[in-house]
Amino acid sequence: MRRRGNAQDKAATSGGRTLVGVEIRSEARPASVRPKSVATHCPYCALQCGMDLARSADDKLSVTGRADFPVNEGALCGKGAAAADLLDPAARLTAPLLRPAKGEPLREATWDEVLTRVAREFADRGPAQVGIFGGGGLTNEKAYQLGKFARAVLRTPNIDYNGRFCMSSAAFAQNRAFGIDRGLPFPVRDLRATGAILLVGANVADTMPPILQHFTAQRESGGWLAVVDPRRTRTAEQADLHLQPLPGTDLALANGLLHVVLAEGHADKAYIEARTTGFEDVRRAVAGYWPERVERLTGVPAGQLRAVAQRLSESARSGRGAMILTARGSEQHSDGAATVSAWINLALALGLPGRPHSGYAPLTGQGNGQGGREHGQKADQLPGYRKIDDPAARRHVAAVWGVDPDSLPGPGPSAVELLDKCGTDITALLVMGSNPLISTPDASRVEARLRSLEFLVVADVVLSETALIADVVLPAAQWAEESGTMTSLEGRVLLRERALKPPREVRTDLEILAGVASRLGSELGTDPEAVFEELGRASAGGTADYSAISHQRLRAGEELFWPCGEGRRAGTPRLFGERFHTADGRARFVAVDYQGAAEEPDADYPYRLTTGRVLAQYQSGAQTRRVESLRKAAPEPFVELHADLASAHGIAEGTLVTVTSRRGTATAPARVTRSIRPDTVFMPFHWPGAGRANTLTNPALDPNSKMPAFKVCAVRIEAAGPAGANA
Ligand code: SF4
Questions:
Q1: pTM exceeds 0.90, yes or no
Q2: Which one of 19, 378, 564, 678 has the lowest number of neighbouring Cβ atoms within 10 Å?
């Protein structure tokens, strides 16, 4: 193990826990948090901020930001700063739980009891009746092993994960245009140098605040920032220009911007000629998106379209470069992949991808949203971003796994489709590191599906809402209690070393999978370093080639971005400089047309609901709702709506509001503001119960990526009573 600083320590206790392999750092820190600390990374979002986990003099675990990690430079958001709190046994699962029979309560059980039960339930069914639902927070090693467990042990095609809800639209569109899907194709710090940024559907001030320092540096050096969001978020407030479109109309907006770029002579003709194909089709497709028509479709003034097109092209031409960045606000739609294609078309027409400080990029959300989709837990993929229906890919991976390629199942159903099969085609389901009861669209239907399963097993850190209805609950080790790699939003592969022993009756996910596999007559490894080495071999030669990356190199402090394999051992911080990853090396324009949202408002449901996150909570809230400081900062859901809309419905600040869609009803206190469009209401999606936002959302799927339409559905609203009435 690499050690930095001036001392070494093998073990230090913390409240009965043991810090193992402790790395002692030399930089000055308050005496109260010295001398024992371990360099690690945040367990939450894809920024993967560097942090030190330390034990204070009064034996408390805490984290501080690492100033030497270039992505966050010491900054942490409140979630990251409180990451150690969840390690407290009081906040988490500490023993396996078993429900002896349906309708009976969960009781504590031994590991042998629960693993034997899981294995028996899986063995009693054919592979077609068993499903796996993974998570975008799992390490690369776990995502890889989960895919292997499904395909080589259970032999089932039924595996997908919650990353389908996060990145699938951008992934599909990037693969289609560039032949590769890697979040940012450049390091985060490149943001600082670019001249102009168009940030679409991202509220980074709330979701990943430390990244703001790069936006700030960009603007302090004369850069320009425009934000596209139906709400005037804290991010939008910092922009030079805020475009506030109707939710679900981003495709029309992007086509409109491209129309202006072409009409006003801003296109980079030499780049289009030399580096792309398909431009003529796109030129014809956007001819009908003149600014005044786009203003009618989106609500964005034509003048703003012209201003954005001009600033982006001026910056691109000046050599400072320009960037178009998208996130879930633009991607989580039933036309999400087409919408991302429209943004990529705009970037290509301006000649941005592959140029210095320039390009298109989606901002990955979940901690390992990037690596999680590269190594086999996605329904249609094998490790290395290989396609499961590609015979050569099947042969390669089967050889690494020591199985017959013909024994590997084919593509399975996507996340929403898989959950919808529960209780019918699929009768037993393993959920690992995910909480679909809260995070899935049309959540009441999903809950009914999961409750109708004959057998549900959940492996998680906490007793999530999904775990509460399971037949078996497996307590899993956390980020600081096991080694593993994560791939951040910039394609950087990071090693999180094991720093603590987990509580006695807690096991790592690798140990859990191995325990079930052994009872089914198969062998899976439990050592993360060995699993990563195998992952490297399985990915070798694939699009996401990790074969030259090792725990050892990462431990030695090397900065490695994938692809990193034969001929690219130094890794690839920046993509597309010479060529794209397509067969002919050119990027593809793809003509796309705006068709409207899957569900447009009507007389019964006259408003648009959009959903998102708040600063102090993360995803389904299963972890962050258990952290006291975060719970206090964001204790409950709310319905954000414009003062004019509120007034029209007799709603005041704090009034309980009932929001109804075609799927169901949610109730939460009103937050009245003038920062959101008057035709749109917003709800955060972190909470269960009456305020569960995903009770309302539309499971309509993007035909290409199978992304659900999280970000817009039609609703009506009513005042339900004063605050506290539904408590
Ligand atoms: Fe953790 Fe993301 Fe916050 Fe950084 S921004 S501290 S990675 S949650």
A1: yes
A2: 678
